Amino acid sequence: LTQDELKKIAAYKAAEFVESGMVLGLGTGSTAKHAVDRIGELLRQGKLNNIIGIPTSKQTQEQATSLGIPLSDLDSHPTIDLAIDGADEVDPHLNLVKGRAGSLLREKMVEGACKKFVCIVDESKLVKHLGGSGLALPIEVVPFCWKFNAGKLRNLFQDSGCVAKLRNECKGRPFVTDNGNYIVELYLKREIGDLQVAGDAILRIAGVVEHGMFLDMATTVIVAGELGITIKNK
Ligand code: DER
């Protein structure tokens, strides 16, 4: 099975958690895309009705609109029944790294307002510890003096031999989030010790908007692997 087929399997499994009448947080990224497609299909087939979607990015908003999923926002629906979204890394405690699709702020706002957050991944996302895989830990920062803040972020993790890079679009222009901010990507050489302490230290830097560690937020993780589906509950 390809990675995308595994993503689709996890996404379709998560769609089974959706009940008519729910207010749904709609995630962002290639795995969440399959879940949004599936929800649109179930609505079209009449197997689901009275769903309101709260999108976690402009990209998901466009996808959901094209599928005819009724949409609203957190201002109108401050409490959400269920969110379905992907992740870049999942540790054994269901802590996540998210944000490599660039929408971590809106995702964290929406998923933080949910009664249940079902995370959907293929098995390649499972890690022992967050941050040790050498892949990016995304941090959303204001564009003003981002280099200054990238330096402060690097210093926070200097013992991990940390590298901080600005995320760029193609042609070297900085990637700009839906909120008009930049993403600084931290590449750590060693896993992060105390995740909560690290997260709090990151947020104390003036000009940092949000980081991509989603700690103690997922209530369920659905993992699709070669040998089948595993459902991990908090
Ligand atoms: O950027 C995000 O938060 C995405 O959900 C990301 O974590 C997972 O993206 P993927 O499903 O394309 O791997």
Automatic annotation (TrEMBL):
- Its name, as the record gives it, is ribose-5-phosphate isomerase
Q: Which family does it belong to?
A: Belongs to the ribose 5-phosphate isomerase family.
| Top EC class, one word | isomerase
Q: Is Cell membrane given among the entry's keywords?
A: no
> Which Gene3D superfamilies is this protein grouped with?
3.30.70.260, 3.40.50.1360
InterPro entries cross-referenced by the UniProt entry: NagB/RpiA_transferase-like, Ribose-5P_isomerase, Ribose5P_isomerase_typA_subgr, Ribose5P_isomerase_type_A
Q: In which pathway does it act?
A: Carbohydrate degradation; pentose phosphate pathway; D-ribose 5-phosphate from D-ribulose 5-phosphate (non-oxidative stage): step 1/1
Q: Which domain of life is it from?
A: Eukaryota
NCBIfam families hit by this protein: PRK00702.1, rpiA
Protein's UniProt keywords contain Isomerase: yes
The record's CDD domains line, in alphabetical order, gives:
RPI_A (cd01398)
Q: Which UniProt keywords apply?
A: Isomerase
Question: Which SUPFAM superfamilies would you find in this protein's record?
Answer: D-ribose-5-phosphate isomerase (RpiA), lid domain, NagB/RpiA/CoA transferase-like
Can you provide one Gene Ontology molecular function annotated for this UniProt record?
Answer: ribose-5-phosphate isomerase activity
**EC number(s) per UniProt?**
5.3.1.6
Catalysed conversion reaction? aldehydo-D-ribose 5-phosphate = D-ribulose 5-phosphate
**Pfam families annotated for this entry?**
Rib_5-P_isom_A (PF06026)
A biological-process GO annotation: pentose-phosphate shunt, non-oxidative branch
